[in-house]
Amino acid sequence: MNSLMKLFVSLSLLFFTSLIVGEINGVEGSHKHHHHHHLKGLIPKRLFVFGDSYVDVGNTKKSPNVTAWKVPYGITFPGKPAGRSSDGLVSTDVLAKLMGIKTPVPYIRKDDVGKERLKYGMNFAVGGTGVLVTGVVINTLNPNMTNQIDFFQKLIGNIYSPSDLSSSVALVSVSGNDYFDYIYKNKLTGIFEFIPKVVKQTEVNLRRIHALGVKKIAIPNLQPLGCLPSFSSLKDPSSPKCIDEVNKVAIYHNTLLQKLVAKLNKETKRSTFVTIDLFNAFLTIIKNKGVPGSTTFETPLTYCCKGGCGSVDKNGEKKYTVCDDPKSALFWDEIHPSQEGWKSVYSVLGKDITAALIKP
């Protein structure tokens, strides 16, 4: 169950970050320099991150069961495990870079850094988080979206002022872990009755973050879950294939999410809420075996770190293998994209993300 939950969390996180980063990337890559600087000045310079392992940059405590703190995680960046579920950067890092800011600090490190470092926002995301699901309590952070928003609320008027919030973006990673947990326990039986419950609680969370004063909220939709190696490699690991039945879960979730965002924007009478289309970004990369003209993933559905990534036997012998070049893989492990995978997702999302982040 642990690995399935981790997978879901990762997925959720990935989506959100990817969408935002892609939009920003479009601005960064613009050839019209005047236009480029004009847009760059309008992109918010503070980022608050809520979610799971796709966006967590170190809120999980080092412990024997947290793989993000084990070798070979972090081999590409920073060269050692750093609490990120990847060989290097994750979605949050790429997005922050595109926004022209430093990666927001993990909430658990807020008292260890200077005030200067807090001005870029903060990351409340914890690997394993769900919308309804709560995992183990890690380091005072309970992986549940409600708790993360509680921590955020306590900082308002303390570390952050209302005007800080009004010029910020919130990245809100949704629900992957809820579905992994459900499928692990029930397979796909009854899941289409469960999905609206997850989206309903997502609505509560989004309304709450907006009511606290954040004026722009980005919500990644779900990537094609059935294409994650944990599913696509089930039948024949040597010839992975996306599982349509599982992808339908993501499609239904995304349809409900899109309707929710349209409803919320109609109420606020502006484009406060933005979805980031991770689903189509992933499918585009899988279909084209990379990003035409830049990255190539010869076998996009295979993953780099196999065999229980990070696990060792009782003698300390590793039980996993790592591919020769993590850059050649879209996925780092069964659930999480590689650093190159994240960068590719953003690059596919392109200019849409930056356009969406600019205040209406």
Would you give an account of this structure?
With 360 residues, the chain is α/β, with parallel strands linked by helices. It contains 13 helices and 10 strands. A hairpin with a 3-residue loop joins strand 7 and strand 8 (295-296). Mean pLDDT is 86; it is low at 1-37. It has one domain (2-357): SGNH hydrolase (Rossmann fold, 3-Layer(aba) Sandwich). Helix 1 (2-28) packs across helix 12 and helix 1 (2-28) crosses helix 13 (351-357). Pfam families: Lipase_GDSL. This is SGNH hydrolase-type esterase domain-containing protein. Keywords: Hydrolase, Lipid degradation, Lipid metabolism, Signal.
What is the makeup of the main sheet? 6 strands, parallel
Counting helices, strands and paired strands, the structural category is: alpha/beta
Tell me the fraction of residues in β-strands, as a range: 5-15%
CATH level-1 class: Alpha Beta
CATH topological fold name: Rossmann fold
What is the CATH superfamily?
Answer: SGNH hydrolase
What is the CATH architecture term?
A: 3-Layer(aba) Sandwich
Question: Which strand order do you get reading across the main beta sheet?
Answer: 2-3-1-4-5-6
Write down the domain tally: 1
Beta strand count: 10
Low-pLDDT ranges: 1-37
Rounded mean pLDDT score: 86
Q: What's the shape?
A: globular
Helix content: 40-55%
Please give the radius of gyration in angstroms: 19 Å
Q: What is the string of SSEs from the N terminus onward?
A: HHEHEHEHHEHHEHHEHEEEEHH
Kindly, what is the distance between the CA atoms of the first and last residues, rounded to a whole number of angstroms? 42 Å
Total of DSSP H or I helical runs spanning 4+ residues: 13
